[in-house]
């Protein structure tokens, strides 16, 4: 019995080690990919810089009704931009709507360019956190809005659920998490080995949000994007 117990323990340790190695490769491959990308809007959007105005306008229209300045309940004090890159969303969406913004981004070379890209308003960007979201811990109660766009595909399911749970704790009273992501049209998720990311079907996102204890209070499909690209959905979560 003792020998069997020892074998089981060794087997569990081997499985845990194998999973850790797989996780390290998954996240490491993504980091290597983005380190090769130019710190420009076109680089952030994979060659689709032309969609940026449509994207920002759609996001603004989705978020505005929740804000106190528009009759909603969400304060405009502090936002967090997740997977912020050089600050495209911070500059064009969040800073015009919030007093200050924090940015969290995996690659330091993007953050090094961020204040220059954002320009004079970068003085209202308080913190530039260099971290993967699988490791990032928001300060409790700090953020009125946590914005997550085109980045959650870089998290495995278990880490996405854990991230969502940490984000819940990072929200101020009446705060919200906003998710804006590509969605796969088929029943199965797509995996892109070039940048080590998943594109999940909409139903998988909904399931992971539910497992995280979040409630979807609004959902909307982004309009006006070119044909042939993934459908993009926006979710407002509490």
UniProtKB/TrEMBL annotation:
One of its GO terms (molecular function) is N-terminal protein N-methyltransferase activity. SUPFAM superfamilies: S-adenosyl-L-methionine-dependent methyltransferases (SSF53335). GO terms for cellular component: cytoplasm. CDD domains: AdoMet_MTases. It catalyses: N-terminal L-alanyl-L-prolyl-L-lysyl-[protein] + 3 S-adenosyl-L-methionine = N-terminal N,N,N-trimethyl-L-alanyl-L-prolyl-L-lysyl-[protein] + 3 S-adenosyl-L-homocysteine + 3 H(+); N-terminal L-seryl-L-prolyl-L-lysyl-[protein] + 3 S-adenosyl-L-methionine = N-terminal N,N,N-trimethyl-L-seryl-L-prolyl-L-lysyl-[protein] + 3 S-adenosyl-L-homocysteine + 3 H(+); N-terminal L-prolyl-L-prolyl-L-lysyl-[protein] + 2 S-adenosyl-L-methionine = N-terminal N,N-dimethyl-L-prolyl-L-prolyl-L-lysyl-[protein] + 2 S-adenosyl-L-homocysteine + 2 H(+). Keywords: Methyltransferase, S-adenosyl-L-methionine, Transferase. The keyword Ribosomal protein does not apply. Its EC number is 2.1.1.244. S-adenosyl-L-methionine binds at residues 83, 88, 133-134, 149. Belongs to the methyltransferase superfamily. NTM1 family. This is Alpha N-terminal protein methyltransferase 1. It comes from Patella caerulea (Rayed Mediterranean limpet).
């Amino acid at each position: 019995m003792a020998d069997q117990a020892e074998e089981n323990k060794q087997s569990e340790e081997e499985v845990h080690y194998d999973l850790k190695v797989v996780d390290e490769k998954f996240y490491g491959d993504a980091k290597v990919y983005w380190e090769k990308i130019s710190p420009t809007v076109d680089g952030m959007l994979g060659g689709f810089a032309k969609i940026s105005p449509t994207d920002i306008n759609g996001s603004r229209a989705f978020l505005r009704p929740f804000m106190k300045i528009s009759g909603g309940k969400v304060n405009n004090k502090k936002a967090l931009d997740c997977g912020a890159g050089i600050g495209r969303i911070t500059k064009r969406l969040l800073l015009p709507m919030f007093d200050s913004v924090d940015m969290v981004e995996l690659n330091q070379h993007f953050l090094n360019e961020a204040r220059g890209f954002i320009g004079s308003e970068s003085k209202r960007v308080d913190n530039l956190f260099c971290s993967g979201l699988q490791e990032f811990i928001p300060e409790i109660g700090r953020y009125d809005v946590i914005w997550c766009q085109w980045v959650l595909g870089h998290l495995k399911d278990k880490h996405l659920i854990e991230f969502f749970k940490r984000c819940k704790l990072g929200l101020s009273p009446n705060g919200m998490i906003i998710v804006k992501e590509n969605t796969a049209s088929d029943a199965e998720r797509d995996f892109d080995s070039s940048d080590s990311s998943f594109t999940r079907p909409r139903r998988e996102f909904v399931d992971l949000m539910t497992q995280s204890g979040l409630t979807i209070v609004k959902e909307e499909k982004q309009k006006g994007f070119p044909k042939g690209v993934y459908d993009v959905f926006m979710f407002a979560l509490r």
